[in-house]
Amino acid sequence: MPDISLPVLRSALRPPGRGRPLLRIGCAIALLLAAPSVTRAQAAEPETCTYSTYRWNVDLRRSVDHRIVRHPYSALRDEEIDPATGCTVCEEDQRVVDVPPLQPFRLCARLADRVEKALAELIDAGEPIHTVQGYRVGRSRGDVDEHGNRTRFSNHSYGIAIDINPDQNGLYTDCVRFGPGCRLLRGGPWRPGQPGSLTPDGAIVLTFKALGFRWGGEIAGR
Question: Fewer CB within 10 Å, N side or C side of the chain?
């Protein structure tokens, strides 16, 4: 099953309904577990924090409240900063990762160099990496408010999670253990052994785990 993180890759976990999280099978890489190589004090802070965001509504099963947020960087709230990495939801803290033939994507600048290098080496070695998705801001985790909206930012919101080959590593629910009872909600079916599907002993997962990431497929839950 799938996801990886440098503190813990959980963007793979998304709740389909009230109190029932989803498990992304075979997809991704996320959070930084190792200490960031750059501290907030060492980096020049931008003047403004800007990001586009939404809320996931569990009753409607779609995103709502799409809006653009902009405020002084000095006014960052705790929820806008990932405590493990220091990465923020701000566009100003993201960097474009460009590894041909992949489409460029954005990731927290603190993680971008090591992820870019790892992807380039894996692709050069012939690993089947076709699509990578990174930074996107949305409240798709946490408790549900009185309107049915999730209240916490996803790991992707901080640019600390990536999804690898989501068309082959889809999002499932009711999947404590992978099998016929798992229900595919988004993306393509996970078929272990098929090129492009992530597996715990595969080069893609092992490479990112060596960097301190955690694979979402190894996170227990539905």
Answer: C
**CB-based contact 45:76 (threshold 8 Å):** no
Q: What is the DSSP string of 109-167?
A: HHHHHHHHHHHHHHHHTT-----EE-----EEEEEE-TTSBEEEE-GGGGT--EEE-TT
Mind listing the pLDDT tens digit of every residue in the chain (222 residues)? 343 334 333 333 333 344 433 333 334 444 334 434 444 445 678 999 999 999 999 999 899 999 999 999 999 999 999 999 999 999 999 999 999 999 999 999 999 999 999 999 999 999 999 999 999 999 999 999 999 999 999 999 999 999 999 999 887 878 888 888 888 888 899 988 899 999 999 999 999 999 888 887 777 666
Q: What is the pTM of this model?
A: 0.81
- C-beta atoms surrounding 33 within 10 Å: 18
Tell me if the bond preceding 72 is cis, omega within 30° of 0: no
Ramachandran assignment for 193, one of left (phi > 0), alpha (psi -120 to 50 degrees), beta (any other): left
- Look at phi and psi of residue 43 and say left if phi exceeds 0, alpha if psi is from -120 to 50, else beta: beta
C-alpha closest to that of 137 among 170, 171, 88, 70: 88
3-state secondary structure 15-78: EEECCEEEEECCCEEEECCCCCCCCCCCCCCCCEEEEEEEEEECCCCEEEEEEEEEEEHHHCCH
Three-state SS at 218:
helix
Contact (CB, 8 A) for 25 and 51: no
Length of the chain: 222
